[in-house]
Known about the structure:
The chain has 53 residues and is an all-alpha fold. 79% of the residues lie in helices and 0% in strands. It has 3 helices and no strands. The protein has helices at residues 6-20, 24-29, 32-52. Helix 1 (6-20) packs across helix 3 (32-52). The N and C termini lie far apart (36 Å).
Amino acid sequence: MRGYPVDRVHHEVAFLGRNVHWTLAELLDLDHAQRRRWVREVGDLVDTTREED
Length: 53
């Protein structure tokens, strides 16, 4: 996590934890690039789901 703003990491972890229910350990085990990729992918799915409602 070194070099990344702590607030950004907290946001990513909270977003993924809420939406995919991964544990904190699982989320922190991802490197930043992996976590950002999952945030984008899950975010796209969440947006798509909202559009369908």
